[in-house]
Amino acid sequence: MPDAAWGLRFWLRFSLAGAALLVLVPLLNRGVAPDSPFALPDYLVPLFGKYLCYAILALSLDLIWGYAGILSLGHGAFFALGGYCMGMYLMRQIGTRGVYGNPVLPDFMVFLNWKELPWFWWGFDHFAWAAAMVLLVPGVFAFVFGWLAFRSRVTGVYLSIITQAMTYALWLAFFRNDMGFGGNNGLTDFKDILGWDVHLPSTRIGLYLASALGLGLAYLVCRYITRSKLGRVLMALRDAESRVRFLGYSTTNAKLLVFTVSAVLAGLAGALYVPQVGIINPSEFSTGNSIEIAIWVSVGGRGTLVGAIVGAVLVNLAKTWLTGAFPELWLFVLGGLFVLTTLAFPQGIVGLFRRLPRRRAREAAAPPVAAEEQA
Amino acid sequence: MSDALLYLNGVTVSFDGFKALNDLSLIVEDGELRTIIGPNGAGKTTMMDVVTGKTRPDSGEVFFRGTADLTRLDETAIANLGIGRKFQRPTVFENLGVFDNLELALAGSRSTWHSLFARLDSAGRDRIAATLERIGLAERARLPAGALSHGQKQWLEIGMLLIHDRSLLLLDEPVAGMTDRETEETAALILDLARDRTIVVVEHDMAFVRSLGAKVTVLHEGAVLAEGSVEQVQNHPRVIDVYLGR
Amino acid sequence: MFARLCRIAALAGLLLGAAAAARADEFATIVAGFAGGGFAAKEQAIVALGRLGDPRAVPVLQALGDDRLRAAPDGRIVIVDTAGGTTRYADAATGQDIAGLDPDSLDRIIVNNRLRGDIEAALGALTLFSTDRGQRLAAAADALKHPSADTAKLLERALAAERDAEVREALQRALAAARLFAGTKDEQLAAIRTLGAATDPQIKNLLDRYRDRPDLDRERRAAADAALAAMARRLQLTGLAANLFQGLSLGSILLLAAIGLAITFGVMGVINMAHGEMIMLGAYVAYVTQQAFIALLPPGWLDAYLAAAVPLAFLAAGLLGIALERCLIRHLYGRPLETLLATWGVSLILQQAVRSIFGSPNKAVANPGWMTGGFDAVGGFTVTWNRVYIIVFCFAVLGALALILNRTGFGLHMRAVTQNREMAAAMGIRTARVDALTFGLGSGIAGMAGVALSQIGNVSPNLGQIYIVDSFLVVVFGGVGNLLGTLVGALSLGVVNKFLEPVAGAILGKIVVLVAIILFIQRRPRGLFALKGRTAEAEG
Amino acid sequence: MGMFASMRRAAVAAGIAAGMAAAAPAWSQETIKIGVLHSLSGTMAISETTLKDTVLMMVDDLNKHGGLLGKKVEAVVVDPASNWPLFAEKARELLTKDKVAAVFGCWTSVSRKSVLPVFEELNGLLFYPVQYEGEESSNNVFYTGAAPNQQAIPAVEYLMSAEGGSVKRWVLEGTDYVYPRTTNKILEAFLKSKGVAADDIRINYTPFGFSDWQTEVAAIKQFASAGKKTAVVSTINGDANVPFYKELANAGVKASDIPVVAFSVGEEELAGIDTKNLVGHLAAWNYFESVKNPTNAAFIKEWHEFIKNPKRVTNDPMEATYIGFKMWTHAVEQAGTTDVNAVRQAMYGQKVKAPSGFTAVMNTNHHLSKPVMIGEIRPDGQFDVVWQTKEAIKADAWSPYLAEDKGKVADWTYPWVCGNCTAPKYAEN
């Protein structure tokens, strides 16, 4: 059946959607006269870029939560790690344009009287190195963490809580000015990326397109994994892990692989995010952020890749609008939304649109499965 | 040490005080069909847990083909040695289709990398089709397993054992909750399977045990009480005590 | 400092000479000096009052010290006395009550820290011979802080007159301290012995300074060294004790925050992200009760507001919890991770609700009198009352909970339902009701925790967020569904944290603890006290 | 199909957003819009909501008196929710979508750093009303809060004086972020220049929202027991203060023994603490509610009427907001336009009679000249001013006590035209 999944119709839709993402926004922004009602004002471009990054992040979480049933409450950490790697590159690009005009040291290091660059900053003046780190750092971190956790069969709520502890610890760590990541102020005041001024509208379009491509790539990766045999192994272990072991599959390895892949995607999202919002600081590690990611996914529809994307974009669109329109009330609305989705349509928005009989069946069949897991 | 397929010697398992297995010793020869009976709490299921690596024994040795020390391996490794297991409660993957369930069980590499790039070849496809025919779920292949009836789930699970060539099958009450008709079919199926593999069946239903007509081991309080043909054990005085009480 | 001590000494002389038959008008003129004028003028007045050695000066100086001295438009100095709820005005010079003063017409007579020091000194000198034992004790302690040759004589006299044992000891210490630097060689050796008996960093510093004097002969230096060594050992021990207490206190706070969660999450398996907000709610109940007491009851009652706040908080949070369970959570049983998201939404709503009702800024919740301050345990380490009471309270709550769970019918039903819902239902237990009550119980306890936390921290809409992560860690670390585990988990985390903090610093210490917990969970995926066949197992 | 569906939504969203944007100019015809960029939720809401209300009060008052340039002034309030990237996003939205003439906002340094590039890119105008670490002077920001030399240094000097108790030993206690780091760095340099020995200075940092102060307070008492007069200089941030002071009070740290002088604790913060046992501890600001003068009386009266609660206090950042807003309105009136470049020029030398009783002046380094006051906490949660400068002090953007700031000049008028230079942009000749 995977063959069917990669049929012509899929590629048609995918490229349609992709094209729309890639062409529409630049066109409306640059091509249309600013005063026309269809014109897309400049400030919305990085905003949409940001949404796309969130969408990638949501995808990465959906991959492990929706399909493998592992709820990570620390995915914000991988996102932030990727972001910091990119931020370090951007900091090094500032060069002598910083407040203290030091060609090598970022301002905050000059200020803390650091004499030379700490070793973990080496190489970040090269984009290639930074790009590699963007994927490697979260990946390796996730691999080690996951190896420890899955090998000793930490599951369900326990895993969620220790991932939360992980991001909490990182949050505290990055706050420390002595860590060498700029403390609470984090990394900011970026000048240019690959030689282009990050503030130029054209650069913004470029970053937006990069995010769009990143999203497409992430979507394909996730789709491939979930449609592969491994994908079915994951879904199987979500329902009855021990049974999968008796079939001879190593659930540890399967989980470890997707956990790592998902962390890498999260890192990618972070890296694309930072140059567009212009700052990365420890608050990205805050436990609340990580929980919010899970909320995007469940609003959109858990276990469906499209759902993750839809959820991330819609929730953040709502956030942008509400914080401006109802600054005093928006938390009520947002909180209410979360309660409503989990109660009224547990399958999320996408679940509303596609009424699949098999999902009904799953609902009906859920309790005995859970019970079997207990035994 | 013997050349027996499955060799348990002095296996003891205790859950906070209560001895589920008490110095159990059991030998299953290659190609044999063995039925294990015993009252509740006799340790039948625990014995299977030990063999399949779900439970680690406190003491005693468990060997497969005389060489593989099962007390040192985890479920995955043991399964890959060729030991299959069917649970008491049918456990199929409710959210996957019947076809997918079988595909997962299909013999072949289990490595994570492989399953990431694996593609189902025509041979495998035929294999699955054949099995579907055999367990009579051909026309339900696309349904999610969760939608099957209890009996059908039992069959699907047996099918999953079939399609994955295992040299040793452990069947935990395969006919629990089956109609008489289904029970008969199952018995036939098991006998058929028994031709080319070793099978250990745990069962309450004496009628069913008799219909298998195989060597019977009676477990009681975590140890072997008696062993022999159905008739022998049925006339065994202690067995009568245990079953009918004094 | 030195100047002040000279004044004490000078004043002492006057006292002894008994020439202190100060004439009323002199006293009056000095007091009048407080009106207007800068701090310098006031300082002179204070010193003069001290010199006068007139007992009438005491109430005036005290009033000045705690901002109860006013200048009336007609130049009179007025003492305001609000004791007992009613405000009385008395003429500072004559001591006569004054009626019909317009409060708004009075000018406050402001002092600064320097003047407060002077007042302490003057009062100290006056009160060294006061009739009030407490005042004499305080005066002796003050004298110890600033040892000098001049204080010695004064202290000798005081000592001669003193009968109370405790005050005598304090005076002897103070005298010894004074003689250490000014006495004869024998006096110094005696002083070293007296001081060496104490366990007090302040005295240790005193001896340190003494020991480093170049003009010491071997004998005195040896004596000082011996005394110092002994004291250092004792201080080290008391240091450990202090750390232990601090750890216990932190642990008790973690425990309080976590107990409620141990019920809702541990026993019922509901990941309640709104748990922190239940705590916050309790804290606000404490605030509201306090305001109500201030508004409705005579001031004397204020100290009792906690007695009302605790049950009220339990009810408020408990009822909210029940409502939450009925309307939301019961629809989500078996889907713990979705409960997490829904309750997260609830917590956002609750925070914003409190924000719009009470406003964002912190609310002041005062410690009642009996919870204010602390007592000096050995080694200059102060044990604060609010922490002591919180530790007690926390264990009381835990004990009560244990009783409910193990000794009451409800507790039995609760355990029955959580262990085997179907069976319990079959046995005629109304499971739905038990669920609601159980959740209510957990939330109620969180509410009570909020009242306790309002006594040491700030009361703001974000209060819950401070504790939520730690609470979950404690429960998971201790072993879900196991109260004993929660207890041990919380206390050990608290103590470990407090022993790390002096070494690694607050932030690193906390990080180390977190990493330790993560690694521990790898070793024992079910926490310290794992239970078999527990509920909070199912995966989303 | 999925991507497709999501795409449709994105497109719709774009449509909506574009619609909102297109609608904006239609309004700005009759009204002058100003942005209010203060967190109304999240951790910083505790401090920032008050400033939001202050701006609204000022706008209200302005419109009552005929608005600005004959137009009605409209405040656009947004909630950046204590989320730093969101600050930047909202700033961009305010400037491009709502086309606001000026923005009043930010509290934490990180939020300012986050929006700074946006304001410089879009040439917006930000009024930043909070005491901060200095080390900055942007052409697009007017800093109406105190710089270190208007708060930290005088406070320490006061404590060193006989009047302040001639302190010899110092604990610099701060939250671990840039403001305390900078302030403490400057203070350390300053203290050493005054001959304070290194081991008479103890510096300690704690995380945000730190709540368990037992160990630290014990350490402070230990440090103070060395026989020399000791004081604590606190740059502890918002939330952590309440538990800190509660611990101090209960541990019996009296102001006459170990005075604590704070730079982030004002009337608003004290309103959240029971001050009975904190009498005598100090704070350094450019304004205290308790100062007696007509401007302040009017300010307080107006505040109480606007907020409809006679118990609400005023504080220094509110006064800074007041000054900033007044200056901006005067500048606009003089320039006759809200054009940023024109207004900026008109800002230099603006004078405002401030509630502090002094006249605040805007300097060409975009910082104010303001008086410095030292206040002692009194039982009712207010401060008694025990010391104040004779006249207003000019804020330094760059501290003379920091090596790396040597020769740095901030002056946005000819010939310098620069916030961070060691030589004028345009040489005079």
Could you explain the architecture of this structure?
The complex is a heterotetramer of chains A (375), B (246), C (540) and D (429). Chain A contains 15 helices and 4 strands. The longest helix of chain A is centred in the middle third of the chain and has 27 residues, at 201-227. Chain A is 71% helix and 2% strand. Chain A has one domain (2-363). Chain A has a two-stranded antiparallel sheet. Chain A has a two-stranded antiparallel ribbon with strand order 2-3. Chain B contains 10 helices and 10 strands. In chain B, helix 7 (180-194) links the parallel strand 7 (168-172) and strand 8. The model of chain B has no long low-confidence stretch (mean pLDDT 86). In chain C, strands 4-3-2-1-5 form a 5-stranded antiparallel beta sheet. In chain C, strands 6-7 form a two-stranded antiparallel sheet. Chain C is flat, with a radius of gyration of 30 Å. The model of chain C is unreliable at 13-22 and 532-540 (pLDDT under 50). By secondary structure, chain D is an alpha/beta fold. Chain D is built from 12 helices and 18 strands. Chain D has helices at residues 2-28, 45-64, 84-97, 109-121, 152-160, 178-193, 214-224, 238-250, 267-270, 294-307, 316-335, 340-347, and strands spanning 31-37, 72-78, 102-105, 126-128, 141-143, 169-175, 201-206, 230-235, 260-262, 282-285, 351-353, 359-362, 368-370, 373-377, 383-388, 393-394, 409-411, 418-421. In chain D, the strands form 4 sheets. In chain D, strands 7-6-8-9-10-14-15 form a 7-stranded mixed beta sheet, with helices on both faces. Chain D has a 5-stranded parallel beta sheet with strand order 2-1-3-4-5, with helices on both faces. In chain D, strands 11-12-13-16 form a 4-stranded antiparallel beta sheet, covered by helices on one side. In chain D, helix 2 (45-64) runs parallel beside helix 11 (316-335). The N and C termini of chain D lie far apart (70 Å). In chain D, 64% of the residues are buried. Chains in contact: A-B, A-C, A-D, C-D. Chains A and D meet through helix 2, helix 3, helix 5 and helix 12 of A and helix 1, helix 3, helix 4 and helix 6 of D.
Write down the overall geometry of chain C: flat
State the distance separating the first and last CA atoms of chain C: 69 Å
For the largest interface, the chains and their residue counts are:
A-D, 69 and 60 residues
Number of strands of chain A: 4
- Overall shape of chain A: it is globular
**Overall average residue pLDDT of chain C:** 84
Low-confidence runs of at least 5 consecutive residues of chain C: 13-22, 532-540
Helix content of chain C: 55-70%
Distance linking N and C termini of chain A: 33 Å
Number of domains of chain A: 1
* Major sheet summary line of chain A: 2 strands, antiparallel
Q: For the largest sheet of chain C, list the strands in their spatial order.
A: 4-3-2-1-5
Uncertain runs of chain A:
356-375
Strand content of chain A: under 5%
Query: Roughly what fraction of the amino acids of chain C lie in strands?
Result: under 5%
Number of helices of chain C: 21
Rg of chain A, Cα atoms, Å: 21 Å
- Helix coverage percent of residues of chain A? over 70%
The ordered string of helix (H) and strand (E) elements of chain A is HHHHHHHEEEHHHEHHHHH
